[in-house]
Design brief:
Blueprint: H1 10-38, E1 61-62, E2 65-67, E3 70-71, E4 76-78, E5 83-91, E6 98-105, E7 108-116, E8 122-128, E9 133-141, E10 150-151, E11 155-159, H2 171-182, H3 195-207, H4 218-226, E12 244-248, E13 253-258, E14 261-267, E15 280-283, E16 286-291, E17 297-303, E18 306-311, E19 324-327, H5 328-337, E20 343-347
Parallel strand pairs: 4-11, 12-20, 18-19
Antiparallel strand pairs: 1-5, 2-5, 3-4, 5-8, 6-7, 6-9, 9-10, 9-11, 12-13, 13-14, 15-20, 16-17, 17-18
């Protein structure tokens, strides 16, 4: 037998090697899969969303009203250094928005005041005016990211340094009379400064310790325009619903009171030192219309022969025989206002 190795046919060799090759391929595939499984992957970011556009500022408008002082249909008047109040409402309401009030003299803003809009769109400015002259007021919003710019209508006020006396007439007298009457001082409202207007000014001055006299000085106007200087009752709750009469001897003032407030205040002259007026609390028990033999006009008696009545002479001092004298033109109104049984208080 020959020593040479016997060679296998080629097809058999290929078949013999195939399982090994297949096993190696399988191993490599598993290794590759494992490697892919352990290799971290980079996350893909989601697409960015586009920012929503900011809405345009809302349009706005505002009302404006001016308060304080004394007014006619055409203008509102203030005394120097008096407080002016400006109020209004912004629509639509954007709380926190800033408004500016401009007080303009001529072509220049003499004053600027800033305030924030409050809940409900309400706003309020308070400031003091300066010296006499015309002042134009306007409220503006400069505009912001939330609300567009706007402005109110303008209104012109008048700052005045007035005085008045017998013979004066016009707007300054008309407004003085209206202001005094609003405070309870009895006066006609005619626009002409007559004797009864002088009496009302005199009573106002006596009430407020400004000296006796019938001239309306700048100080009188300043108080009246501020709505100050009303008589303060000593017995506000007396009588039915506060209806009663008070006489202040120290100031020579007679007050008809109603519902805790002075309804009308009058100039009066009481008993002179030799025949003084009685002090205390009484009730009206008799009334006598017309004029009696003593010259007493429309008398209302509160004790004995003591009465409130009209009389020809009513000086700025105590001069009667004990009664309370009032000017004759005021006598009928006082008589008609008093009811029998109403209380009266006379005091120093």
């Amino acid at each position: 037998m020959s020593n040479c190795r016997r060679l296998l046919p080629l097809p058999l060799v290929v078949l013999a090697l195939a399982p090994a090759a297949e096993a190696q391929t399988t191993t490599e595939a598993q290794t590759t899969t494992q490697a892919q499984a352990t290799t971290p992957t980079t996350p893909v970011a989601p697409p960015k969303q586009k920012a929503k556009p900011k809405p345009d500022p809302v349009a706005g408008k505002a009302s404006m009203s001016v308060h304080g002082g004394l007014a006619t249909k055409k203008a509102r008047y203030y005394a120097p250094s008096q407080e002016v109040v400006v109020r209004g409402v912004v629509k639509p309401a954007v709380p926190g928005e800033v408004l500016t009030l401009y007080a303009i003299r001529g072509s220049k803003a003499s004053k600027q005041v800033r305030r924030k809009v409050r809940r409900g769109g309400r706003y309020e400015f308070r400031f003091k005016v300066g010296n006499a002259g015309a002042v134009r007021l306007v409220v503006k919003h400069r505009g912001s990211a939330d609300q567009a710019r706007f402005r109110t209508r303008s209104e012109t006020i008048q700052v005045v340094s007035w005085r008045a006396g017998t013979g004066s007439s016009g707007v300054k007298v008309l407004l003085l009379q209206r202001g005094l009457l609003r405070l309870g001082f009895a006066t006609p409202v005619t626009g002409s400064f007559d004797g009864l207007t002088g009496n009302a000014v005199n009573v106002f001055r006596k009430t407020n310790g400004m000296g006796r006299g019938s001239s309306a000085t700048g100080s009188v106007y300043a108080m009246v325009m501020r709505g100050e200087g009303a008589y303060k009752l000593r017995y506000p709750q007396s009588g039915t619903h506060g209806k009663h009469v008070e006489f202040d001897w120290s100031r020579q003032v007679l007050v008809l009171a109603d519902r805790g407030k002075p309804y009308r205040v009058y100039h009066v002259s009481s008993g002179k030192p030799s025949t003084p007026t009685v002090f205390g609390s009484y009730r009206f028990y008799r009334q006598e219309p017309g004029t009696n033999s003593h010259g007493m006009v429309y008398s209302s008696y509160f004790i004995g022969g003591y009465a409130i009545h009209g009389y020809a002479s009513v000086p700025n001092y105590a001069a009667s025989h004990g009664c309370l004298r009032v000017p004759i033109p005021n006598a009928v109104s006082i008589y008609n206002w008093i009811d029998l049984g109403d209380p009266i208080y006379t005091y120093r």
